[in-house]
Amino acid sequence: MSGSFTESFADDGKLLLCVAENGHSFEFQCSETTSVESVMRFVESVSGIALSDQLLLSLDMKLEPQKLLSAFGLPASDREVFVFNKAMLQSNSHPPSPEDVDLQDVADALPPASLHEHHPLDDASDPALKALPLYERQFRYHFHKGRTIYNCTVVKHENCERLTREQKVQQRAVEVATRNLEQYYRVIYQNFLEFMKRYKHQHRLHSDLLMNFGRDIEKLRSAKIHPYLLTESRKCLLDFVKEDNLKKAVENCASSHRQFENKIAQFQQMFVEVKRKVEELFACRASLSMKNLEVTVKDHERFIDEEKSIMQSLSKDVNTVKKLVDDCMSSQVSSSLRPHDAVSALGPMYEVHDKNHLPKMQACYNSISELLDFCKNKKNEMNNFVHGYMQKITYVTYIIKDAKLQFPVFREAMVRQDDLFADLKLVRGVGPAYRACLAEVVRRKASMKLYMGMAGQLAEKLAMKRETEVRKREEFLKTHGPFVPRDVLASMGLYDTPTQCDVNVAPYDTSLLNIEISDVDRYAPEFLVGLHSKIASLKSSLTMSGDSSLSAEPEEIGIDTFDKDNFDDILAASELIEIAGTSKMEVENAKLKADLASAISRICSLGPQFEYEVLDESEVENVLKNAADKTAEALQAKDEYEKHLLLMLKEKQMHCDSYEKRIRELEQRLSDEYLQGQRHNNKDVSGLNLMHEKVSEYKAEASSDVEGNKTHVSGSEPMDEVSCVSNLTSKQPCKAREGMDENMVDSSQVLSQPLDSSMLESQQNNEKGGKDSEAGEMGVFLSNSSTAESPQKSLDDNVATGRGLDAKDSGDIILELRNELMEKSNKLSEMESKLNGAMEEVSNLSRELETNQKLLEESQMNCAHLENCLHEAREEAQTHLCAADRRASQYTALRASAVKMRGLFERFRSSVCAGSGIADFADSLRTLAQALANSVNENEDDGTTEFRKCIRVLADKVSFLSKHREELLEKCQNLEATSEQTRKDLEEKKELVKTLYTKHQLGKQANKEKISFGRLEVHEIAAFVLNQAGHYEAINRNCPNYYLSSESEALFTDHLPSRPTYIVGQIVHIERQIVKLPSQLSASASPEAGKTHHLCSDQGSRTLASSSISTSTSATTTSNPYGLSSGCEYFIVTIAMLPDTAIHQQAS
């Protein structure tokens, strides 16, 4: 283990531990499977911080003792673990002790100057030679002194670096603790903001309920219910609630509302104070900076470098003088070396040492010493700062935790407030609920109609499937039937046919109230919902924006579909599915009614929760801003589309003008051709006039069709606009052939678009017939793209071809042209009449569809918005419901447990109170424990199990105490009898003591300091000798068998390396015993047998020697340690050490 911090610490399997209070660092060899508790025990061993006082933090995580290091991503090369001492975080903890750096001074570390050591050159006759050893000794002393100064300087600089590192560790520890507090405070403050948000929502709702209670009552009183629902007790909506109990409820709610508001104000003030203290704590951390100190320590390294260079110079000079001395000693005989030159060269070197090198090194040492003092002061300041800062963090954490503990109380109070305002919410919810019920009736009726229609559609689809299957079977029989006999096909079952499928829907919802969507506003006006004015304005804004965006939507679709190739497919895909038995309009109306009723029901179900929770000030502004942006975008798109339509109309007008000009040219050419043909055939004059009239009529009709199409393009029907514009811009104009230009082709496309597919097919057949008759002669390609294009092409082709014919054939050509023109004109008239009728019908349907579509889109927009709000409200309601269910289940479990525990305590109380004695109490407890053990249930909770265990343990202990009490009573009786007998014996002995006291005292005074070799008595000095059996036996002339007790033997011999041959001590106790016969060892002793009388002398009193001996009439131990014969009497003597222990401490 290392106690230093390494900047490049990146070794695997090592954990860096930093102590915050002093900055010390330790490396701990560990792995991912090492427990945190092992780390804490290591910290306790190296830092002295108790295991229970340690708090370990790494980044923002607190290390828990029962977990492994892998749970916290440790060990890691870039992670440190900071250890905080909980004992030092308390407010009453002692401040840290000043930093103490115990270093040896230079004066103490200098070696003694060996100037008087004898050298061979000291006896030389030449003074110069005598001076060389003196210089050598001085140079060596300078070198040793310089090395001592250098070593002390390096040690002090290392201590400066160590103190700087420790301060950096403490700085990081402060940052970690601050981040931990900041994270904790951020979580608690976020909880406070969320709590205040819920409280403000509840406060606004409850305030509105109290303020508008009278208005809500009047609304309910003025709202009459449907005639079908009228009874004698219910005439208006106010009859749905009990009006008499509401006034008292309003007063209670108002009082509770004000009290709760005051409590919340105090709670807010508490958090303001918490925030202020946290900000003050974070502000005082700004004064913590280590940059200047690090720069200073780094700058002082130059003194170390300077001393190092001086030491190199001193070492070089020592080597030089040593070489000179060695050379002089080796060249004494030859006298070739001149010592005077050497001495003259060493003098200046000595001056440099004494006046330059050594003072400079001393100055560097003094600078480093001052730096060390400065670092010590900074370290002490850091210790005090960390101590105070961590105490402030502890205090702030305490007040934050105190505020956190109040959250459950206030949340419970909010729940009680909601329960208290339940009656007022009931009054507010009657109107919306009634309106929602009526809307639900309308929705169900519309849904039933759609359901019936879908059943009819299903029946039609199945019938079509059946017809398809029948056709497939008939085709199969036609194909393969002639080759297989009919009886074989019948046997194979191939003549069967699918059965008809009947779709039947049983009637339902027959008891619904007979109302329509208009009756909802009649019997339940919108004011019953009671939307706030702010919400009403928002609703109007959303409606306006919805109308604008929806009205612009078809136009945008029209612009986007200009480049499509098949408008008919898009139109078919956008239409509603046809339902059997109903029209599109009926289905659309039914859907609109169902959607509108559903939207009304959802609006009513949202109620004031949507008003006060979802739409606060900022959100209302955002919604209004978004609506305004969408409205502006829709208006801009509408303006652009209007410009686009105007440009299209202008372009089509130019096409029409070109078309009219082309018709006039054709008339002129036709007139010219007619004049040429008149010269050859005068009889065709009437036919030519008729043809001229048809051409004029065709011109007028074409012009009217163009105008009609122009009107159709500029109309107000969105779908018609899309149809017209997409056809005008999507189809590519055909190239004009045989004298026909592009303008006519484009104009013909305008005329051809309104035609349906059946008319186009008939027209194509007619055109194909015309082509067959004329293609061989003229080779003209006729396009079949439209009805109006064919006659013009034919006319133009025939005229162009006629230029190359002679006058003989002109009459036949004119006749053919006339016939074809008359035929096409008749078809064009029919198609025009059909087109006008269809256009009128489409125009009417389009106007109705546009109105319904706008209403539907508005409803869909509102419903989409309300669905989002409903989803949010439903999520919160689900959360509250889950919380309520959980609390209800917890309450039920706690109540059941409390009832069960109440029953158990009643049984315990009856058991305790039953009986009047201890035995009865023990028996009742034992009976109760047995009954509880027999009534074990698998589903019982832990509390019941613990109670049963406690009762069983209590019963066992009470039974044990009862038995023990009986035994103690019996022993007390025996002790009382023994005490009485002892008292009588003491009375007798007292008399004996009084008579012998004087004699005994005199004899004792005479023999006090003498070793007794006769009869041994208490307080006499006795000598014991080690016999062959290994026992200490007293030296006694008259009375043998006195043996030293084992306790006394241990007292005298335990501290000696071997057992002494004798022991001398003062007798403090003598016990008399008799070796019994083997038959007597089994005899039982009475309670009074074995009683030993100990008579010890008190201070200042005298006791007789005879009374100090203990008598024993009972059997001794079964063993015979001293090898005596049966019935022999022996004594066990206990002695104490004498003040002068020299006599018995000598070993043999």
Automatic annotation (TrEMBL):
Superkingdom, taxonomy of origin: Eukaryota
Keyword hit for Protein transport: yes
GO BP term, example: autophagosome assembly
InterPro entries linked to this entry: ATG11, Atg11_C, ATG17-like_dom, Ubiquitin-like_domsf
Residues of the Autophagy protein ATG17-like domain: 156-483
Residue numbers spanned by region Disordered: 699-727, 754-777, 784-803
Alphabetical list of Pfam families matching this protein: ATG11, ATG17_like
Domain Autophagy-related protein 11 C-terminal: residue ranges: 970-1136
Entry keyword Protein transport: yes
Record keywords: Autophagy, Coiled coil, Protein transport, Transport
Coiled-coil ranges per UniProt: 620-676, 814-876, 958-992
Protein name: Uncharacterized protein
Organism, scientific name: Arabidopsis thaliana
Organismal lineage: Eukaryota, Viridiplantae, Streptophyta, Embryophyta, Tracheophyta
